[in-house]
Design brief:
The protein has 80 residues and is mainly β. It is built from 1 helix and 5 strands, in the order ββββαβ. The strands form 2 sheets. The protein has a 3-stranded antiparallel sheet, with no helix packed on it. Strands 1-2 form a two-stranded antiparallel sheet.
């Protein structure tokens, strides 16, 4: 759940197109995560006919930018 403009709660999902995780238990700093999300498949769960500019195609330019990519920059062992 996220807060949009700190006013309302937004629940939804974004399909994962690709994901890899490498865990090095002996050296956590050598671990990494890579995730690619499918922008066109974003579902907000909102059934009300709200502002049309919130549709992924309009709001995030899904045609021009079809994916969101996350690559970890740091992995740390925090306990346990």
């Amino acid at each position: 759940m996220a807060r949009h403009a700190m006013v309302t709660k937004v629940r939804g999902s974004i399909p994962v197109r690709e994901a890899t995780a490498y865990l090095n238990a002996g050296d956590p700093a050598a671990s990494s995560v890579h995730v690619v999300l499918d922008v066109a498949g974003i579902e907000t769960g909102n059934t009300e006919p709200a502002t049309p500019t919130c549709a992924p195609a309009d709001f995030l330019d899904a045609a021009g930018h079809p994916s969101i990519t996350f690559d970890s920059t740091d992995v740390k062992h925090v306990g346990g």
